[in-house]
Amino acid sequence: MITAGGIDEVRRLIGEAKKAGKTIGFVPTMGALHEGHLSLVRRAKSECDYVAVSVFVNPTQFGEGEDLDKYPRDIEKDSAMLSAEGTDLLFFPTTDDMYPDGFDTWVVPGGPASILEGERRPGHFKGVCTVVLKLFQIVSPDKAFFGQKDAQQFTVLNRMVIDLNLALQMIECPIVREADGLAMSSRNAYLNSKERKAAVIFNQAITRGAEIIKDGNSTRDQVITEISKVLSKEPLARLDYAEIVNAEDFSVIEKPRGVVYILIAGFIGGTRLIDNIKLKIEK
Ligand code: AMP
Fold it and tell me: How far is the CA of 103 from the centre of ligand 1 (A)?
């Protein structure tokens, strides 16, 4: 694995790989890697000849008072994990590389970015779209791999790829979970052992939501009420939102039909966690 020192070096290495006829797979991350990230790398390896991974804690997607400063960082460990997976290129830019003096051009997403995470984290998706477009411009991948864990992010970025005519394929990969069902996340590192045990309630709540939604007769309100009821059993947990949206465009569905995400966000102590289940309602 080569760890690239800068944008020009990434361009040169990718250029050489393309000249050799290789297809490029790309996995953007913020580091503090776990099995969820590695599942994307493995998928990229299975579908592409050359795999590039970026590790960049993007300051523009963090809001005032969020966890930018304390976000876990361990590039040595990340690098060893990526190398063991057979990653070809690790791109680890500095903030100055990505946002040099005078930087002032932004991607401002509409539609699916306007609700839920977009509403609660103003400017978050603007930061995500801007950095991901910049990374796409640098790496010029054939395929980019993202986790369903951040379903709204995937939908917003997919919209950006369509709207801006980007010549790459977006791949959504399944959520990797701990044995008890908790979705893997770099932010799980913030949880103490009591909180870690309690955090499983988010998955239990949406799993219950998925059970009752499958019959095709439940309304959005009924499902959300049931999810809230399950969550209220865990005193350490606090609900931010539970929602059901159309998987295509993230519009809220009153009478769930077709392919939907059941989404949840909430707090365990000071830690904010998200999770979701994607399912098809046949009826
Ligand atoms: P992050 O480093 O949190 O920005 O995540 C980088 C990529 O890994 C995103 O596409 C996430 O959706 C994905 N990811 C994070 N956690 C998981 C997980 N538990 N399972 C699958 N993908 C994940």
Answer: 27
